[in-house]
Write a structure and sequence with these properties.
heterotrimer, A alpha/beta, B alpha+beta, C alpha+beta, A: alpha/beta, Immunoglobulin-like, 5-stranded parallel β-sheet, C: alpha+beta, D-Amino Acid Oxidase, Chain A, domain 2, 12 helices, 22 strands, globular
Chain lengths: 401, 121, 505
C-alpha cells in the first residue's frame, strides 16, 4: 500500500481550512480543518502506512494484462518511479472554478483569486491578498473567506450569488456573513471586471430567472480584490486518462455500491467522486472505498464480477440530480448501503421516495432540501431484493399534494 | 410580544426558527426539528457565542504562521478584541496542536490554542 | 545621460526581431520597453497564426513580409527553439455565390507567391477536417499556413538578442523625442521594479544615433514627435476565447471564414500547444491600453466561430478569454522605412496582422535600413541558436529522466494542469531577459495557462519568483507596475472593518 500525495504534507486542502466545524458527526466535537486532518494523519503514522509527499502522478494506465494498474510518479527525491498495483483508489479532490471558466468579461488585472487561493495566502503564508473585497459565489469557501478576510482586517463589501439561493451551509451564512453585516446579494453576478494592473472595481448586475443579467441593473463597486467561490470541479484528469467512465452530472466517476469505477479494481471517493459539503462524509466514503479495495484484493484481484452478475441501475429524477453509487450489485452489497445525492433546486415540504421497479421502498419527509446540501439515505439490501432483484432502484421527490 | 426569526446552525438542516418573546421575556421556539434548535435559539438571543479561528506568527517554523482557535466558545462581542490581542502574539516553532498561544483571551477566561503542528526548521 | 548607437522603442515581436537581427552587427543596441517584460502589447494577444500570405494585397509590404516571414518560420523555430507547427489553413466559403471571392483569394495568393494553394470542394474539406460544418460549400486550402507561439517567438528573439549583446531597459517609458546633434534625445520615465532594480520612480535621458519605432499601437505617437508627415494608428480590438486542451483536436487546420458582406468572420484553430482557440472580433477603440473583453464580444466570437464547425465544443470548455489591440494604420499597410523628414528615425509601424508572421522578415529588413545608414561590421562571435527551455510535459520518459538527473527540480511539479515543474520555472527566471512576473512565467513555460488558470499554483509560483529574484513575495506582481498580488499582513488595520458598508458608487 502507498499513499501518493502531491502536497508537502498529508491532509490535503484541510490544512488551509483553519475554521471550525469539522468532524461534528465523526468525533462529536467541533474541530478545525488541520485538527481534523491530524487525527487521520496520526492514524496513518501509527499504522505505518507508507506515503510519499511532494509526489505527483504523471501517468495512470491499465497494463496489457487488463487488470494491473501502472502508476508513474515524479518527485524531487525519487525522480520517476513506476508502481504496479492491483487496486487504485482515486482520492484527488477537486479544484475551484476559475475566472476563465466563468468567462467574466472585462480586463485581466491582479487581484482576482479563487477563494481557495486567497485562503492559502492568508492561512498558510500569513499575507493578505487584498483589502477591499467583493466575493462572487456563496459556496462555503467563499462564505468562510468572507469571515476570514474580515477578521484579518479586510473590508468585504458583499457576496454576490448568481442563483436565487446560496450554495453554502446555513451555518456559514449566519456566522460568516450575518455576524459581520456582510450583505448577500442573491440573483446577482459580476458582469465586468475593471482595472489594468490591479483590480479597481467590478460591475454587478441582477439576473433574471434564466440567470441572464438584467440591463439597467448594473452597479459599480470599487474594490481591489475579487474572490471567486463559484463551484468545485472534481479533478478527474487522471481518471479520464485511465479510461474510467465519468458522470456528466458530477464530473466524477460512475461507481457501484463498492465505490468501484467502470474499471475493476479502481475505486473513487471524496470530492473527486462528487463534491461534498461535510468532511465527515468524505472520510466515511473514503473508509468504505478502502475497505472495498481491500476486499477486492483479498478476493483475488482480477477475479471480479462476471458480466452475468445482477446489477440494479439507480435512477434519479423529479429534482434528484444524481446519486452515488449509481449501480448496485446485490451480490456485493452489505446489509446497509449509503446512497448520497443532491437536488437541483430548493424544495420545501416534500418526500424523498424510493422505489424498486415501481414498488415503494421508503418515503422520507423533508422540510427543506437545497442544492448546496448533500442528502443521504440508507438502503437496506433486504428491502431492495425482497421480491427479487429489480432492474431499477428509483429515487425521486414527491410533494405532498 | 416580540417575534424573531433565525436559522439554526447546529446541523446542515438549517431549520428556520421562529421565536416569540412575550412581555415577561418568556420565549417560545417553533420550527426546530430537534431540541438543539430550541437551545440554540434561546442562547443566540440571550448569550450568543462563537469559536474564533485565526492565525498567529511563528518564528523558525516550516510555515510563517500557525492556525489557532479559542478553546471554547467566547461571547460574540469579544471577537474583535481577541483578534486585536492575537495581533501581538508570536510563537516559536515547534508548535503542537493544543498548545496555548494566548491565555485568557480578552478576559473571557478562554485560552487560544494552536490547531496545527508546525515543525521547527 | 545614456548614449547608444541604436535604441529600439518597444519589446514586442517586432522590436525583438529587429533587436535580434541588429545583434549580428557590431552595434550598441538598447531596447526600451514601458512594460516589465517583452511581449506585453499586441504580441501577447493575437491569433498565434503563421499566415501563408494569400490575404494581403499584392505589392504591399504586408504581402512581401508575410511571405518572407512564412518561409523563414520553420527554420527559425528550430534555430531559436520556439513552438511552431505547420498545420495548414482553410478559408471556408459558406455560399456558392461567394465562390468568386474565394477564387479571387486564390489568385491573390498565387500572385503573392504562396505555394500549394488550391480550392477544395465542401466534401473534400470535410474529408480532411471531419468536424467542418456541413454548410461549407468550398474552401481555399493553404498548406503552408501554421501556428506559432507568439510569446515564445518574442521571448526567443529577445533572449537571443540579449545573448548577443543587446541591452533591455524595462519599465522605461519614452515620453518625448527630440532631434539632437546627429541623432535623437529620448526623455524617459523609469518606474521602480524588480527588473531595473530601482526602488523609486525616476527619469532618464537616452541619446541615440538611430531610433527604431516599434511601439505597436503607440507608434504614431513617437513618429509624430519627429515628423511633420503625420501617421495615425487606431487600436482595433479583437476578443478571443481559449478552450481546454480536451477539445484541442476538434480541428487540425486553422479554419478562417471567407470575408463577406456580412462580416470578416472569426477563426477556429488549434493553438501550437493543443488548445482550441476562437476569435477575434474587430472593434475600433479609442483607448490604447484597455484590452477588456465584453459580453457581446465573447458571444460574437462563439456564435460566429460556431458557424465553421459542426458543433463548437465551447460549453464548459472555455478556460479563458482575452482581448488584444491591433495597430491599424490609416493607410492599411505596414510602414517600415526611415522617416523622410527624420533621418536616423526608422518606423516599424502599423504592424497588425500578419505582423506576427512578418516580424522576422521585418527584423531583417529594418537591419538592412540600419546598415544603409551606418554600415556596421558584422560580429564574428554571433550565436545564432537558442535552446528552448526544457518542457517536461512534452518530454518522453528518457528525456524526463535525463532532465531530472541533471536537476531534481525538473521532477517537482508546480502547475499540475500543464505539468510544469519548478525546474522549468527557475530556468525561465534565470534566462537572459528572464521572467520577473507571474505572466512572464506563464508565457515562457505555461505555468498557470491550463484549466485551473493558476488557481492552485499562484502561491507556489510567487514563492519561487521571490526566492530566485531575492525579494519578498509582496514584491511579486502579475504583470509589473501596480499589479502586486499581496497587500500586506493580516491584522495590520485597526480591528475588524465596519459592519455593512455596501457602497453604491
Amino acid at each position: 500500500m502507498l499513499i501518493v500525495e502531491r502536497d508537502v504534507r498529508l491532509g490535503g486542502i484541510l490544512n488551509q481550512c483553519i475554521h471550525n466545524g469539522f468532524g461534528l458527526h465523526t468525533f462529536k466535537e467541533e474541530l478545525t480543518g488541520p485538527e481534523y486532518a491530524a487525527r487521520y494523519i496520526s492514524q496513518v503514522e501509527e499504522l505505518g502506512v507508507p506515503y510519499r509527499l511532494s509526489t505527483i502522478v504523471t501517468d495512470l494506465q491499465l497494463a496489457d494484462d487488463g487488470h494491473t494498474k501502472t502508476v508513474t510518479t515524479m518527485d524531487e527525491q525519487g525522480g520517476l518511479t513506476i508502481y504496479e498495483a492491483d487496486a487504485v483508489i482515486l482520492a484527488m479532490g477537486c479544484r475551484e472554478r476559475a475566472r476563465g471558466a466563468l468567462n467574466i468579461p472585462g480586463e485581466r488585472p491582479a487581484g482576482i483569486y479563487t477563494a481557495g487561493t486567497a485562503q492559502y495566502f492568508v492561512n498558510l503564508e500569513g499575507r493578505m491578498p487584498g483589502r477591499e473585497v467583493v466575493i462572487l459565489g456563496s459556496g462555503d469557501i467563499g462564505l468562510i473567506m468572507a469571515r476570514r478576510m474580515t477578521l484579518e482586517g479586510a473590508h468585504v463589501k458583499l457576496v454576490a450569488e448568481l442563483q436565487p439561493y446560496s450554495g453554502g451551509l446555513k451555518r456559514n451564512i449566519v456566522q460568516c456573513l450575518d455576524d459581520y453585516g456582510i450583505p448577500l446579494m442573491l440573483s446577482h453576478t459580476v458582469v465586468k471586471i475593471h482595472g489594468d494592473k490591479r483590480l479597481t472595481g467590478v460591475t454587478i448586475a441582477e439576473v433574471d430567472d434564466k440567470l441572464n443579467p438584467i440591463p439597467g441593473s448594473e452597479q459599480y463597486y470599487e474594490c481591489d480584490t475579487l474572490l471567486l467561490s463559484c463551484g468545485l470541479l472534481p479533478e478527474n484528469e487522471l481518471s479520464g486518462q485511465l479510461g474510467v467512465n465519468l458522470s456528466p452530472v458530477t464530473s466524477g466517476a460512475v461507481v457501484n455500491e463498492s465505490l468501484e469505477t467502470s474499471i475493476p479494481g479502481v475505486f473513487s471517493c471524496g470530492n473527486v467522486l462528487h463534491v461534498h459539503d461535510l468532511v465527515d462524509y468524505v472520510s466515511e466514503e473514503a473508509g468504505a472505498a478502502g475497505a472495498h479495495a481491500a476486499a477486492y484484493i483479498q478476493a483475488g484481484a482480477g477475479s471480479g464480477s462476471g458480466p452475468e452478475e445482477a446489477k440494479v441501475r439507480v435512477v434519479t429524477d423529479g429534482g434528484v440530480r444524481y446519486s452515488v453509487p449509481s449501480i448496485l450489485r446485490p451480490d456485493h452489497m452489505s446489509d446497509l448501503t449509503t446512497i448520497r445525492f443532491r437536488v437541483g433546486a430548493v424544495y420545501k415540504d416534500v418526500d424523498v421516495v424510493t422505489y424498486a421497479d415501481g414498488r415503494e421502498l421508503s418515503r422520507l419527509h423533508k422540510r427543506i432540501m437545497a442544492p448546496g446540501e448533500m442528502e443521504q439515505l440508507i438502503l437496506k439490501k433486504a428491502d431492495l431484493i425482497s421480491q427479487g432483484v429489480p432492474a431499477e432502484y428509483h429515487i425521486t421527490i414527491e410533494s405532498k399534494n | 410580544m416580540e417575534h424573531k426569526e433565525l436559522i439554526c446552525i447546529n446541523c446542515p438542516m438549517g431549520c428556520m426558527l421562529s421565536v416569540d418573546i412575550d412581555d415577561s421575556g418568556e420565549m417560545t421556539v417553533t420550527g426546530n426539528n430537534c431540541p438543539r434548535g430550541d437551545v440554540y435559539a434561546r442562547k443566540e438571543l440571550t448569550d450568543p457565542t462563537r469559536i474564533v479561528t485565526s492565525i498567529v506568527n511563528v518564528t523558525n517554523g516550516e510555515l510563517p504562521v500557525v492556525s489557532v482557535k479559542t478553546k471554547e466558545d467566547i461571547p460574540k462581542d469579544k471577537i474583535d478584541e481577541i483578534i486585536k490581542e492575537l495581533k501581538g502574539v508570536t510563537v516559536e516553532a515547534p508548535v503542537l496542536i493544543g498548545e496555548t498561544v494566548l491565555k485568557d483571551a480578552a478576559g473571557t477566561g478562554v485560552d487560544v490554542i494552536a490547531t496545527k503542528n508546525i515543525r521547527r526548521i | 545621460m545614456l548614449k547608444k548607437q541604436v535604441v529600439i522603442i518597444g519589446a514586442g515581436v517586432t522590436g525583438t526581431c529587429i533587436a535580434r537581427e541588429l545583434s549580428r552587427r557590431q552595434l550598441d543596441v538598447l531596447v526600451v520597453e514601458r512594460a516589465s517584460d517583452v511581449c506585453e502589447g499586441t504580441s501577447k494577444a493575437n491569433s498565434g497564426i503563421a499566415h501563408s500570405g494569400y490575404d494581403a494585397k499584392p505589392g504591399t509590404l504586408k504581402a512581401r513580409f508575410n511571405i518572407e516571414g512564412s518561409r523563414l518560420m520553420p527554420e527559425l523555430a528550430k534555430e531559436l527553439g520556439f513552438p511552431y507547427r505547420n498545420n495548414g489553413s482553410l478559408v471556408l466559403c459558406f455560399d456558392e455565390s461567394d465562390m468568386d471571392a474565394l477564387n479571387d483569394l486564390l489568385e491573390r495568393g498565387r500572385t503573392n507567391g504562396v505555394e500549394g494553394l488550391k480550392i477544395l470542394s465542401g466534401d473534400e474539406v470535410r474529408a480532411m477536417e471531419p468536424n467542418v460544418s456541413d454548410e461549407v460549400a468550398a474552401a481555399l486550402y493553404a498548406p503552408t499556413g501554421g501556428v506559432v507561439d507568439p510569446f515564445l517567438l518574442t521571448v526567443a528573439m529577445a533572449e537571443n538578442a540579449a545573448v548577443n549583446g543587446v541591452e533591455f531597459s524595462f519599465d522605461t517609458e519614452v515620453t518625448g523625442i527630440k532631434r539632437s546633434d546627429k541623432g535623437y534625445l529620448l526623455d524617459c520615465e523609469q518606474h521602480a521594479s524588480i527588473r531595473n532594480g530601482l526602488d523609486k520612480d525616476g527619469a532618464i535621458q537616452i541619446y541615440a544615433d538611430i531610433v527604431i519605432n516599434a511601439a505597436g499601437v503607440y507608434a504614431d505617437r513617437f513618429h509624430n514627435m519627429v515628423s511633420d508627415d503625420k501617421i495615425h494608428i487606431t487600436p482595433r480590438k479583437g476578443e478571443y476565447c481559449l478552450l481546454d486542451k480536451k477539445v484541442g483536436g476538434y480541428v487540425s487546420a486553422t479554419l478562417f471564414q471567407l470575408p463577406t458582406a456580412k462580416g470578416k468572420g472569426v477563426l477556429v484553430t488549434p493553438t501550437v500547444h493543443g488548445n482550441l482557440m476562437v476569435g477575434p472580433t474587430a472593434t475600433d477603440v479609442e483607448d490604447h491600453d484597455k484590452t477588456d473583453t465584453t459580453a457581446e464580444g465573447l458571444n460574437t466570437v462563439i456564435v460566429t466561430g460556431a458557424r465553421s464547425v459542426k458543433a463548437l465544443p465551447s460549453k464548459g470548455n472555455i478556460i479563458t478569454s482575452f482581448a488584444g489591440l491591433r495597430a491599424h494604420e490609416d493607410g492599411g499597410d505596414f510602414i517600415i522605412e526611415e522617416v523622410s523628414d527624420a533621418p536616423g528615425f526608422i518606423d516599424a509601424a502599423g504592424i497588425e496582422s500578419p505582423g506576427l508572421t512578418a516580424a522576422p522578415a521585418i527584423g531583417r529588413y529594418v537591419a538592412g535600413i540600419v546598415d544603409g545608414i551606418c554600415h556596421p561590421g558584422m560580429k564574428d562571435d554571433f550565436t545564432a541558436t537558442r535552446k528552448a527551455i526544457p518542457c517536461i510535459a512534452l518530454a518522453d520518459t528518457e528525456e524526463r529522466q535525463r532532465l531530472i538527473a541533471e536537476d531534481p527540480l525538473y521532477a517537482k511539479v508546480i502547475c499540475r494542469c500543464e505539468l510544469v515543474t519548478e525546474g522549468e520555472i527557475v530556468e525561465a527566471i534565470h534566462r537572459p531577459v528572464g521572467a520577473v512576473t507571474l505572466d512572464g512565467v506563464k508565457r515562457r513555460v505555461r505555468a498557470g495557462m491550463g484549466r485551473c488558470q493558476a488557481g492552485f499554483c499562484t502561491p507556489k509560483q510567487v514563492n519561487i519568483l521571490a526566492r530566485e529574484l531575492g525579494v519578498d513575495i509582496a514584491q511579486i506582481t502579475k504583470k509589473g507596475g501596480d499589479s502586486g498580488l499581496l497587500t500586506g499582513y493580516p491584522k495590520d488595520t485597526d480591528g475588524i472593518a465596519p459592519k455593512g458598508g455596501v457602497s453604491h458608487e
